[in-house]
Write a structure and sequence with these properties.
Elements lengths: L1 H30 L8 E2 L8 H6 L4 H10 L4 E2 L1 H20 L9 H19 L8 H41 L20 H10 L8
Antiparallel strand pairs: 1-2
Helix pairs in contact: 3-4, 4-5, 4-6, 5-6
């Protein structure tokens, strides 16, 4: 009788133990946040300098993209996927737009093309059902790196232009015409007058020797 009672108690303890463990596991599973919903910080955006902002102020395609791209700085994979298609549309609009004359160049066009390609890759991920959150986050970080490259290029080109304008302004103030080339003149030998030449011949002992 004692053995049966002890056995029964042991079974009851084991049953209660596993029941509690299962409830704790289920509770933890319910409260756990899916990785797809966890916001990730992808780094800061390179800001445009004051003069650079003025140069792109009327570039509508860039301004529209700028408003959306700021959302990707701190974003979850799910949110990134929700905004990926809109980002692709704006990136294509940027690529086909005409940049301001101050920054437009083949090198700058190439940067916009790369950004459009990376935005297209992010949009393609929305069609992959089993896409991992880490893959989405990596692509967003890569996209922001390319965008920062565009902003850095704008700052560099505009700063160079500003420097050249400053140099030309300084030159104009001191009255130098930079449009004309300075051609060095050859110095002609000084002419000797006939009288001075005669005295030089008299002083030369070799000139008085009979030939």
């Amino acid at each position: 009788m004692g053995i049966s009672m002890a056995f029964f108690r042991s079974l009851l303890v084991l049953f209660l133990f596993f029941s509690c463990k299962e409830k704790v596991a289920l509770s933890a599973k319910k409260t756990a946040i899916p990785q797809q919903s966890i916001a990730v910080k992808h780094g800061d955006i390179v800001p445009l300098k004051t003069r650079a902002k003025q140069e792109v102020a009327n570039w509508e395609a860039y301004r529209s993209l700028q408003e959306l791209i700021e959302k990707f700085v701190h974003i979850s994979p799910n949110e990134g996927m929700s905004n990926a298609l809109e980002l692709k549309t704006l990136a294509l609009g940027l690529q086909t737009s005409i940049p301001p004359k101050a920054v437009n160049s083949p090198a700058f066009q190439a940067r916009m093309h790369v950004f459009s390609s990376e935005a297209l890759r992010l949009a393609d991920m929305t069609y992959i059902p089993a896409i991992q959150a880490t893959a989405i986050s990596r692509q967003i970080s890569k996209l922001l790196d390319v965008y920062n490259g565009i902003n850095t290029k704008i700052n560099t080109v505009v700063s160079q232009k500003q420097f050249e304008e400053s140099v030309h302004s300084t030159v104009r103030l001191i009255g130098v015409d930079t449009t004309k080339k300075i051609i060095p003149t050859k110095k002609r030998p000084a002419r000797i007058s006939p009288i001075k030449e005669e005295f030089l011949l008299l002083d030369d002992p070799l000139s008085n020797m009979p030939q």
